[in-house]
Structures are given as C-alpha cells and as structure tokens.
Model the fold of this input.
Amino acid sequence: MRRLWVWNMALGTFVSVALLVAVPALAKDGRDFAGSWRVENVTDLGQEVRLTLHLRVYNYSDADVVGGTIVLTDWHVAAQSYGSFLGVDVRDRESVGLLGDVTILRAEYDYWAIGGHPRLHIEFTDASADAVWRTIELRPMLPGEE
Done:
C-alpha cells in the first residue's frame, strides 16, 4: 500500500513538472498568453451587472509587450466590448496583475457563473513594428492568488 502511494506521488510530481516545462515551451504560435481571473464587488443592475475584475496575465509569446491593450469582449457578440486595460507592459515569461471595474450584460455574467470565463485578447506592436492580436486563455484564479 505504501509502495503504491509513493509511486502515485512520484508520478504526480513528474507529470506536474513536465507540464510546467512543456506549456511555455509550446506557446510559440499557440497559447502565447494565459491568465487567471476572479470577480468581486458584484452589483446587480437588472439587465447588467457591475463588478470588479481581477486578472493575472502571463506572457509566453517570446516578445515583450510594451503599451499593450487588453480588451474584454462578449462571448456571444464579439463586437461588444465591455472595456479595456490600456498601457499594459508585460515582459516575456513574466506576468502582470490587473484590476478594473466593468459593467457587463446579465447574460454574459450568467455565462461566467456556470463555468464560462471572460473573453479577453491582447493587442500590441512587436519589436518589428507589426501589430499583434492574441487571445488570452483563462482559468479561474486560485484562492490566495493575485
């Protein structure tokens, strides 16, 4: 029994380390930006909801972002923007914490409440002066994470 427990712990550790190494390595032209999110200070406004959005965004793009813009859009109507974070700087392989108050449609908030997540993308100009637009893959923020 103890042998099985040791084996499971060793296997779990190996898999965890492999994922931590592999995900950033595979990010090139894939998941260049990832992050975590949570909401607080939720106020029901009827057809809309006002809330504070906490974000932690990680950059795995092989490029530093200077003066970027992170945009929050609706899952159902991509042209519907709820706001943006301007002047975002995040160096390659680093992260940035962001906090902002937004008002979103009730349907969008309800989608988040059943397991969805905010729809975010980042826009910036890279070192070659090319415009870059990338989706930010999100997961819920863990307790104690900022």
